């Protein structure tokens, strides 16, 4: 599978596997090990986590598989996130939902992720949400500490606006290597708010969450979802693709910013379909059919 | 007439003549030659085209006049645009309306414009619309090829947002010399979205399309059009101007970004009125009367 | 009281006293002198004016106190603004409300402020509103003249967007040291439009006008005001603060951009409460309770 070089050291697989729904999949440790092998066989080496996924349980569950199979660690890239504080039985001291991007929280959260994941090293750590109280110096100091101590290899953000990205970058000697944003055939905000322009300009390939619009693509009943589904089905038929998710991902892959879709399906068939999307090249006509079906303007 | 220096080599007349409606004017080649002479007499030396104007027929029609009068070529500046692909009898291979800012399309379109216009050189080539799929490296490569091969002298964009402009500029060794935007007494978006701030900051004088609001100024029946028309009429009376279009253009000319209005009227009287607008200097009171009549805020 | 260093020479008190309602306070010159002493005793050394406050009468009224007490001048910082032209009996030659940011107007307005205020020196001069016609070179020339002539020490803007700030800064050799913006627990625009990001990135501490939402905080009956008031009251109770305005100001003070609230109350008790807000440190939970009560999103 194609890889995207975010730094000299950090290469992600173009399709990233997302574990945020793991706790609803009812996979035991063996099944997780098997899934890791299956992803590897497809060339999907990058795995997306966050401290809060599965109500703070997801990383630990995944980490048991890594403990059983330490040989896998060097073959994969681990991504995690921090900065959101949830009310949870796992965190009884949390009074309410907050963001927290202080030095202390970032460092503690990253170290906790390392423990849960049974690893000594995160390949990539992201600030999960822009915190209206974020102190860019504090974030920079935390990132630089985690880098120097060898605990995290590279850093980025998620859901950041252009000015929020620039603010944090301005205080940081390391590059913010990515902005993980919501973008899909059904969600075009990043085409209009400057995010994709910034990503292309700075050559920081963005990661795409909800790359298949969280299932709305397959079953959404609103007008936009139905129109886009129809356009995807037409294109799938025209080019002989097996399923519409391949087309929806190929639509993201065609963008010059080098979007890396995160696929978070339990189904191996879906993961294979995602992997196959790299072999699909949409024509401009096909791409714009989908753009327009989603309500994208073309004045 | 005042000229605006976009580069050392490229000076445009402050008022630019727009040919986008040529095919509806029913002008024969002789009439086009005469119009060129009339414009020259007024100091209007810059002529705005696009590949798609008149359903791809406009440039060729204009080019016949240039073929008859090769002596005129050195006295005028030719501007064209590319990047939109229309469904048209002239382009039977086009499957649907698209944008196309690939290297191949830009170069082929510019070369086609040269043939139609019967010239060996475009003074200025613009990307007509921001293409959500635009690859800035590709655009830069096309522009640099056209520059090196002597086919185009300078480059710009049209309808680009601030971040889209910055993206393309970031990959280009040549300056983007202008952004041709919609701006008029009835269309203020560029005052609020950063476009005019960027134009002034980078000293890239913008061109104004629909500078007279596409006729809405004269006959629009909505509240905004009626209020603005009334304010324009009052000012025309106050300063003894012959017509409201002079005031509407003088309103644009007063802006410090050095806006270059494109006037696309068939009527010689209108063109003369436009030319005369350069002799009208609005006071701040007059300018703000019109701003406020159009709904512009003044907190 | 904490001071904020805007330049090496210019330090403002973290709480700034605002005089815009002076003419409605019915204070005589002695009372103004007393107010200056009271502010000094609290460490509030910075005083915010504008040419237009009190229908052009405010600065002169304040200036009488300074004339009586020239010893106070060196102990305080005087801030004024220019660029708005009001219809007023004090300015019979003004035809209508306008903005005017020409060289001539800026210089004349600043010189007039000096006369009214009975001082030879303004510590800080701001452009009051972004003028759609502003010529950044003109503004820069006026600022540099006022600096060179020793009449004004530092310069800034008010209510400027990010791109307007960047435009003016791009032509100015001096730093724009602040953007005086509307921000409060009830007014979050600057959290979303990039203004606070820019302020933090450039390390230009913003001043906050309507820092207590112009009284809506205390008596507003709309849903947002009621919810926020309730959250402020809860927090005041929790931490034993005397009043909700302390909490509302502490909420601004917690932001890492170093917001300087302007307090424009006639009541000495309110001014003391404002001063006390510097001793209140909100927890993140408390800050986000207020953010969310005001409708701030937390996805």
UniProtKB/TrEMBL annotation, chains A, B, C:
Residues 14-290 form the NADP-dependent oxidoreductase domain. Its EC number is 1.-.-.-. It comes from the Bacteria. Keywords: Oxidoreductase. InterPro entries: AKR (IPR020471), AKR_Detox_Biosynth (IPR050523), NAD(P)_OxRdtase_dom_sf (IPR036812), NADP_OxRdtase_dom (IPR023210). One of its GO terms (molecular function) is oxidoreductase activity. Coiled coil: none annotated. It is an enzyme of class 1 (oxidoreductase). PANTHER family: NADH-SPECIFIC METHYLGLYOXAL REDUCTASE-RELATED, OXIDOREDUCTASE YDHF. This is Aldo/keto reductase family oxidoreductase. It comes from Simiduia curdlanivorans.
């Amino acid at each position: 599978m194609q890889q995207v070089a975010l730094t000299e050291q950090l290469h992600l697989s173009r399709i990233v596997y997302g574990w945020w729904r793991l706790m609803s999949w009812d996979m035991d440790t063996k099944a997780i090990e098997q899934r890791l092998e299956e992803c590897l066989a497809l060339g999907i080496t990058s795995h997306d986590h966050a401290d809060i996924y599965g109500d703070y349980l997801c990383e630990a569950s995944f980490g048991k598989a890594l403990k059983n199979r330490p040989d896998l660690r060097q073959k994969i890239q681990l991504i995690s996130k921090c900065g959101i504080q949830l009310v949870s039985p796992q965190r009884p001291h949390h009074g309410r939902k907050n963001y927290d991007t202080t030095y202390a929280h970032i460092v503690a959260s990253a170290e906790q992720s390392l423990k849960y994941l049974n690893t000594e090293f995160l390949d990539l750590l992201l600030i999960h949400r822009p915190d209206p109280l974020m102190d860019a110096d504090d974030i920079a100091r935390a990132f630089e500490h985690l880098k120097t101590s060898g605990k995290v290899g590279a850093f980025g953000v998620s859901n950041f606006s252009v000015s929020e990205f620039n603010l944090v970058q301005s205080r940081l000697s390391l590059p913010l290597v990515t902005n993980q944003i919501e973008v899909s055939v059904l969600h075009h905000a990043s085409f209009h708010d400057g995010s994709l322009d910034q990503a292309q300009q700075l050559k920081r390939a963005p990661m795409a969450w909800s790359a298949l619009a969280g299932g709305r693509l397959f079953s959404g009943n609103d007008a936009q979802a139905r129109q886009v589904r129809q356009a995807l089905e037409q294109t799938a038929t025209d080019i002989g693709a097996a399923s519409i998710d391949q087309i929806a991902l190929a639509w993201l892959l065609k963008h010059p910013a080098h979007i890396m879709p995160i696929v978070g399906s339990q189904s191996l068939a879906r993961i294979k379909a995602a992997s196959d999307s790299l072999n699909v090249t949409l024509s401009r006509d096909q791409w714009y059919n989908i753009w327009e079906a989603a309500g994208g303007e073309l004045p």
